[in-house]
Hints:
The complex is a heterodimer.
Chain A (H helix, E strand, L loop, with lengths): L1 H8 L19 H33 L2 E2 L6 E2 L3 H7 L2 H32 L5 H9 L6 H14 L2 H9 L12 H30 L2 H9 L4 H29 L3 H7 L10 H11 L3 H31 L1
Antiparallel strand pairs in A: 1-2
Chain B lengths: L1 H8 L3 H26 L20 H8 L3 H32 L5 H10 L5 H14 L6 H25 L3 H9 L4 H12 L1 H17 L2 H6 L8 H6 L10 H21 L1 H8 L7
Helix pairs in contact in B: 2-13, 3-13, 4-7, 4-10, 5-7, 7-10, 8-9, 10-14
Amino acid sequence: MGETSLSGTGAARSAPARPATSRLRRRPRWLKTAFPYLLVAPAVIYLMLITLYPGIYAIIQSFYAVKFGPWQPVGFANYVRLWGDYQFWGALWNTLVIGSIALTLQCVLALLLAFFAYRDPWVRGWRIVFLLPMLFMPSAVAFIFKLSFLDARVVSDLLIRVGLIDGNLAIQSSVWMSRGLLILADVWQWTPFLFIIFVAALQGQDEEVEEAARLDGASWPAIFWNISLPMMKPVIAVALILRGIDITTMFTNVFIITKGGPAFGTETISYFIYRTGFRFFDFGYASAASVIMLILTILIAQFVVKRAFVSARS
Amino acid sequence: MASMRKKSRGDNLVLRYAILGAWALVCLLPVLWFLSIGLRPRTEIITPQPIYWPTFSLDAWHMIWSDWPMARYLRNSVLAIIGSVLIDLVLAIPAAYSLSRYTYRGRDDIGFYILSTRMMAPAIVAIPIFFLFRNAGLLDTIWALMLIYAAINLSFVTWIIRSYMLDIPKELEDAARTDGASDLRILWEIIIPAILPGIITASVIAMIFAINEFLFTLLIASTSQAYTMSVALANFTGGSDGVIYNAIALVAFLAFVPVFIVVVAIQKHLSRGLTMGAVKG
Lengths: 314, 281
């Protein structure tokens, strides 16, 4: 049985092992070979239109000055300008700082919550409650954070009432408080994403291993730290990568809450590209920044993501 | 059975419920605050002292239907999202079938290429795609939104479906194959019914991402002709009156309800879907 099922489904490649039954269909051999490619081709072509085409377009455009008139070839001028542009480096730095703090916080929080929730009898209830923030439109969440922290100063008011601070927080004039606000909004909305995944991973693990350790007298934190966590590693890697991608491309919150300010202190790389391209219409320059990002993305995808997904599956 | 084991464990229940309870409040209180913003009059939103017990008012409800073409935004969102999910399924099901059921040269690279498109920052491709749609005359149409949402979600949908297909025992197909069924018939009559939960999960997740999508919609939809709910929100500003928060909060709540219902319905599959099949929840 095992023999035939293997050759049956793998028929496309190994023509000699073709099962007898498929002779009935009399399909030409080239079609048999091409068939799996034909199935996957539409999806690949579609994705190339949206990734490869724009990639090439951006590369070409990055060698031109594209403002309102016709394209003017400028060689590497856009890249040279990027190299010396402190706003570009600042945007890279902001993305890294905001992204890594937000990702670390939500990972620790999600692990902690998952650790306490996964063997709780009401785990289904916790999951639904913890899921709520994730189900609101990010643009609306951003507005509510803007309202509560900046426009209506509700948070300042609450903190004053509790006696933690004396006057209103001047968030908008502080780079770090503004970054903190972006981080907070992201942590509030997206910790659930990691939590849901971690709980599922913990529930899916082999209970007998845990039981055995428990019988040996190990405490729960010790079991979690020494047994569950190492087992979850591949899952954590995949979850963090998916979340990391979304954090490093953060745009909505910046656009709505801080507009990149104060003093470009919260401008992420996505917002930098948007501002250069669609506010200053400096498309050639924005494309050069896109190309740099594209190269970084490809490198990270090749070396980090591929390995993480391969190990998660095995 | 699970609860019995817990009792014997004697670990710190107080700490556990303190932490879980605290986080539940962190999740719930802003949501209630959200709702209270949506159901208060505009005059009670931005005040020198925040108002915690507002007057109940349906101002926002009347405003969203009379001052804005809300019905059109809603229709745009629904059409663009449903269209994009259909495009995704048509493209992803055969692709996932090919990736999960055949062995051929380059298969893993193709699969990884599909996966890696998820890593692309929208801002990187935004400019070329803006020009692509402009040259095609598609700017400010829901067709453009449909195509772009489909592209964003295609990698996700393909990988989720592929993961479910890998779980189907091959014997199931072999029986049909010995009866002389063609590959496409096997896909249609055996595989697709068997992985229906996976297809639904993938569709729900694609739907949520499409609802949330912001940057592309902002660039592609330049007038209310093609605004979706997500971007329409950003334009709920009454000129000199500033941002109209109660309308934003109410619309967000109305959009939340259907999302909540479908997500609870597929809860069991959610973690698997969110990790593109890497975690089998």
